[in-house]
Amino acid sequence: MTQMDSPVSSAAEPLEPVAKNSPAQVLTASVVGTTIEFFDFYVYATAAVLVFPALFFPGSDPTSALLASFATFSIAFFARPLGAIVFGHYGDRVGRKTTLVAALLTMGISTVVIGLLPTYEQIGVLAPLLLAICRFGQGFGLGGEWGGAVLLATENAPPGKKTWYGMFPQLGAPLGLFLSSGVFWVLLHFMSQESLLSWGWRVPFIASILLIGIGLWVRLSITETPAFQKAIDSHERVEVPVAELFRKHKRSLVLGTFVALATFVLFYIGSAYLLSYNVKVIGMPFLEALEVQLLGSVVFGLAIPVIGKLGDRYGRREMLILTTVLIGLFSFILPVLMTSGPNMIFLFVTIAMVLMGMTYGLIGTALAAPFPTAVRYTGSSITFNFAGIFGASLAPYIATYLQANYGMTYVGFYLGFAAVVTLACIFLSGKDEV
Question: Domain 3-430 adopts which CATH fold?
Answer without folding.
Answer: Growth Hormone; Chain: A; (1.20.1250)
